[in-house]
Amino acid sequence: MTEQNSSRTSLPANVRVMIALVASPTLMVVGMLFYTLFVDGWQYISISMIVFSLLCVLAYYVVITGNPPRLRIKKRD
After folding, report:
1. What is the pLDDT of residues 3-19, one digit of tens each?
2. Are 19 and 64 in contact (CB under 8 A)?
3. What count of Cα atoms within 13 Å lies in the side-chain half-sphere of residue 17?
4. Are 16 and 63 contacting, i.e. CB atoms less than 8 angstroms apart?
5. Opening angle at CA 64, ends 62 and 65, nearest 5
6. What pTM, to 2 d.p., does this model score?
7. What confidence score (pLDDT) does residue 73 get?
8. How far apart are CA 38 and CA 46, in angstroms?
9. pLDDT, tens digit (0-9, with 9 covering 90-100), for 35-58
10. What end-to-end distance do the CA atoms of the chain give, in Å?
11. How far apart are CA 59 and CA 69, in angstroms?
12. Which of 41, 46, 59, 66 has the CB geometry, 3.0–4.6 Å to 10, for a possible disulfide?
């Protein structure tokens, strides 16, 4: 059995709870996005609704997984 050296540590539970509390109002924006999409049509969706919805998805990804998303940067040799 081989050991894997994991350099990624998960965030503490209190930090994840604080992120969830701060990001909870953005759930209303996501709901407003879906409401606007299904009732008024995609023409009435604003850029700010899309930006805040993406921020909500990012925040709750961090809350659920406990790790921030990793961006892979390839180094040229």
Report:
1. 454 566 788 888 999 98
2. no
3. 3
4. yes
5. 65
6. 0.72
7. 75
8. 14
9. 999 998 888 889 999 999 999 999
10. 33
11. 10
12. 66
Place of tokens 């940067």: 73
Q: Report CA-CA distances (Å) from 61 to 5, 32, 34, 50, 57.
A: 23, 20, 19, 16, 6
Residue type, 23: A
Question: Strand, helix or coil at 64?
Answer: helix
* CA atoms of 77 and 44, how far apart (whole Å): 47
Contact between 49 and 29 (Cβ < 8 Å): yes
The token pair that represents 52 in the structure block: 């805040």
Cβ 19 vs Cβ 45: under 8 Å: no
Task: Give the three-class secondary structure for 6.
Answer: coil
**Token pair of 53, please?**
């919805």
**CA pair distance 63, 9, nearest whole angstrom:** 14
